[in-house]
Design a protein that fits this description.
Shape: flat
Largest sheet: none
Structural class: mainly alpha
Distance between the termini: 87 Å
Number of strands: 0
Helix content: 55-70%
Number of domains: 2
Oligomer: single chain
Order of helices and strands: HHHH
Number of helices: 4
Length: about 150
């Protein structure tokens, strides 16, 4: 026999009981947390870069040198990991602010053309994906050019 649910009892000091609201994180909170994380990763990236450049000897002479039990190659790998995290954070930041970016660009283009330019959400998304594809292709081509142009010592 199923048990029927009873409505919550009324409290004398509050009237009827309202169900608890689900935990919702505001967009402002998400932006703040992302910006704080980007700042932390950026500062760590700067610190590791300064350590690699000014504390360690040059990469070829750094064999055997350790900082807190880690060698030059370990710190260099950590630097690259921080760079990847920073790039991912910037990408997420741009995605969260894409409507604002498109609004600023379209207002500038509207002023330049002398007539209103409006972009709907679908068009904004297509421009964003297209820009991401172009940027990734340019970076890929630069990496390919570096890989093809590198020379081993004689």
């Amino acid at each position: 026999m199923p048990v029927a649910e009873r409505p919550p009892a009324a409290r004398p000091d509050r009237g009827s009981v309202t169900p608890p609201r689900p935990l919702a994180v505001s967009r402002t909170t998400v932006n703040f947390l992302l910006d704080a994380a980007l700042l932390a990763v950026f500062l760590m990236l700067v610190w590791v870069s300064v350590v690699l450049r000014f504390v360690f000897p040059a990469g070829t002479a750094a064999a055997g040198w350790l900082l807190w039990g880690r060698g030059f190659d370990d710190w260099s790998a950590f630097q690259f990991s921080l760079l990847c995290m920073f790039a991912l954070g910037v990408l997420v930041h741009l995605m969260l602010h894409w409507s604002w970016i498109c609004g600023v660009v379209s207002s500038r283009v509207s002023r330049w053309r002398g007539r209103a330019v409006r972009l709907d959400d679908g068009t904004q998304t297509l421009y964003g994906v297209g820009l991401l594809i172009v940027v990734l292709n340019v970076v890929g081509l630069l990496i390919a050019a570096a890989a093809l142009g590198i020379r081993a010592p004689l």
